[in-house]
Amino acid sequence: MEYVKNDKNEPVCLECGDRIIYGRSDKKFCCEECKSRHYNNLAKGSRAYRRKVMNRLSRNYQILEHLLKTGEKSAELADLIAIGFSPDSVTGFHKSRFRSDEFWCFDIKYRMSDSRIHSISKIQNVSLTLSLDL
Ligand SMILES: [Zn+2]
Predict the structure, then answer these.
(1) Terminal CA-CA length for the chain
(2) Are 78 and 115 in contact (CB under 8 A)?
(3) Could you tell me the strand order of the sheet in which 108-112 lies?
(4) Residue 67 to residues 27, 70, 121, 132: CA-CA distances in angstroms?
(5) What is the pLDDT of residues 87-119, one digit of tens each?
(6) CA of 128 to the centre of ligand 1 (A)
(7) Residue 133's pLDDT is what?
(8) 49 CA to middle of ligand 1, Å?
(9) φ, ψ at 49 (rounded to 5°)
(10) CA 13 / ligand 1 centre spacing (Å)
């Protein structure tokens, strides 16, 4: 766990920065209110982060689905990034020794090289895949 000390090496509250005067030396907050505010903010940050990742995945899915609908099986990565594709956000990953690595975005899979994504296709029997995993 994290502890914060001021320049006189006295413990200070993680939330408001006030010096902690009472209580055990390993206390991290000056009061219950600061403690709950701190953990609420952590939870809020966690929710915001999950929402951000979900938004990225949704955007990726829209883009990939659009490519599939228009019959495109590959595209320049730079072009996709320009319209909001996030190469780092994936729901699955399979390393390949012989081809470029395979990535999943829900039920769409694709391979990605340094400059392109290609071999975009729908995963067949996705319900079967799920039931095997669970
Ligand atoms: Zn405080």
Answers:
(1) 33
(2) yes
(3) 75-76, 116-122, 108-112, 102-105, 92-94
(4) 55, 5, 10, 28
(5) 999 999 998 888 889 999 999 999 998 899 999
(6) 52
(7) 55
(8) 25
(9) -65, -45
(10) 5
Q: CB atoms < 10 A from the CB of 27, how many? A: 15
Token reading at 105: 């975005």
Q: What is the H or E stretch that residue 94 is in?
A: strand 92-94
pLDDT of residue 131: 59
User: What's the half-sphere exposure (Cβ side, CA atoms, 13 Å) at 131?
Assistant: 4
Question: In angstroms, what is the span from residue 92 Cα to ligand 1's centroid?
Answer: 42
The radius of gyration computed from the CA coordinates of the chain, to the nearest angstrom, equals: 23
Question: How far does the centroid of ligand 1 lie from the alpha carbon of residue 26, in Å?
Answer: 14
Q: How far is the CA of 5 from the centre of ligand 1 (A)?
A: 13
Label residue 1 by pLDDT band (50, 70, 90): low
Q: What gap in Å lies between CA 35 and CA 18, rounded to an integer? A: 13
Query: 110-129 burial string, b = 16+ CB within 10 Å, else e?
Result: bbbeeebbeebeeeeeeeee
- Ion ligand 1 residue ranges (Cβ < 5 Å): 13, 15-16, 18, 30, 34
